Amino acid sequence: MKVVFTILFFADTIALVVLTYLLLHLIDAGKSGTTIIEITGGMLLSIFLMILFVYRYLKTSGSSGRK
Question: How far apart are CA 25 and CA 47, in angstroms?
C-alpha cells in the first residue's frame, strides 16, 4: 500500500507543477479571472491531496511496524 501512496504523491506533485505553470502562463497572457480562480482551486485541491497522501502513508507505515 505504501507504494501506491508514493506513486499518487509523485503524480500529484507533477499535477501541481503543471497547474502552477498554467497559472503563471495565464496570468502573463492576461486571461480572465474565472480561469485563474479555477486553476488556483485546482492547485489548492492538489495541495490538499498531497497532505492526505502523506498522512495516509505515515499512518500505514506506523501501523505495519507494530505487528
Answer: 20
Mean of the pLDDT values across residues 41-45?
A: 94
Chain-centroid distance of CA 34 in Å reads 21
| C-alpha cell, 6 | 508514493
Interatomic CA distance for residues 46 and 43, integer angstroms: 5
Q: Is the pTM of this model over 0.90?
A: no
Other C-beta atoms closer than 10 Å to the C-beta of 39 total 20
The pLDDT of residue 66: 52
> Is the predicted pLDDT of residue 42 greater than 90, yes or no?
yes
> Following CA atoms 58, 18, 39, 8 in sequence, which dihedral angle do they give, to the nearest 10 degrees?
-30
Instruction: Identify the CA nearest to 22 among candidates 34, 10, 39.
Output: 39
